[in-house]
Structures are given as structure tokens and as C-alpha cells.
Amino acid sequence: MKFKILFIVLYFFASNLFAQHTTVIVENDTILVSELPTFTYTSKMTPEQRAAYHLLINRVKFVLPYAKIAAFHLQQVEQKLQSITSKKERKKFVKKYSKELKESFQKQLKNFSIEEGKIMVKLVSRETGSTVYGIMSEYYGSAEKFFYNSFSSLYGYDLDETYDPVENFQIEKIIKDYKLE
């Protein structure tokens, strides 16, 4: 009996420590509503699975800022292209902007591992709402698209891969758990 009382007291103490509280008033009665933080039960993971999951966490934390930067630059390009009417000027602007981005980020992106690159393709799709191949279709010619798609397939990339939060639930969970949004 003493153990049950101790457990109940400790439970309420712990819930007060970690919970976020809000109060709701219903018909002159105040109700305390607590939201406990979510946690992942990982004891059923083998050591290899746990190591792979922690490696995925590190990769997502490393790659997501680059995907957000890519989405930001894509948005800037789209806004600028709306004001340019001439097809020749649009092409010139895209070529110039692409060159500047390559100079700025090529060194960092070359140091990505193959797995980090695959995660980058997924996260760019998540952040922009379209695939990398679809983005290339808007701004590059068919020869460049073919070259990049062929070259990426040698390393196991699929530039036409879309981000599906259900299929990529681990990545989505990492982003939510570590508040990377």
C-alpha cells in the first residue's frame, strides 16, 4: 500500500516537473491540463540499429540547414524571375545565380558522404515541395538534367525522389524531436 502511494506521489511530482500546464475554465470550474513530453522507447533496438539511428540523427542535423538554405535561394530566384520578362535575361540571371551558388557551396557539398547526399535530396524535396529533378527541369536544359541525373544515379541517388513523411518517418521524427524546423 505504501508503495502505491509513493508511486502516485512520484508520478504527479514528475508530471509537474516535465509537463507544460494550461488551465481551462468550464462552467466556473478550473481544470488543469498537462501535456507530457513524448519519448521514444528504444530498448528493443539492437546496438547496431541504435548506432544507425544516432548516425541518422547526426546526418539530419548536419544536412537540414543546407536544405533550408537551398529552399531560401530557390524562393529568391523565383521572386526575381517574376520581375524579369525577357527569356534571354531570365536565362542569364539563372546562369549567374547558379555560378554564385556553386562558388559559395561547392566546397561544403563535395565533402558530403553519399548517405548525407541522399538525405539532402529528400530534405530539399521536403523544404521546397518539389523534387530536385523537377527544380532542375525549370532552370536547366535537357542535356544538363540528363548529365546530373546520370551522374547521381552512379552513386545511388534518385533526384526524382519525393519526400514522404510516412515513408521517411525517422527523419520526420528527428526533425520534430530536436525542433529543427
Could you explain the architecture of this structure?
The structure is a single chain. The chain has 181 residues and is mainly alpha-helical. 68% of the residues lie in helices and 8% in strands. It has helices spanning 2-18, 47-83, 87-110, 114-128, 132-139, 142-154, 169-177, and strands at residues 20-26, 29-35. It has a two-stranded antiparallel sheet with strand order 1-2. A hairpin with a 2-residue loop joins strand 1 (20-26) and strand 2 (29-35).
Helix content: 55-70%
Mean pLDDT across all amino acids: 86
Report, as a whole number of angstroms, the end-to-end distance: 46 Å
Q: Order of helices and strands, N to C?
A: HEEHHHHHH
Q: Cα-atom Rg, whole angstroms?
A: 24 Å
Unreliable segments (pLDDT under 50, ≥5 consecutive)? none
How many structural domains does the protein architecture include?
A: 2
Strand fraction band?
A: 5-15%
Largest sheet: 2 strands, antiparallel
List the total number of helices. Answer: 7
The spatial strand order of the largest sheet comes to 1-2
The outline comes out as: extended
Q: Structural class of the helix and strand makeup?
A: mainly alpha
The total strand number stands at: 2
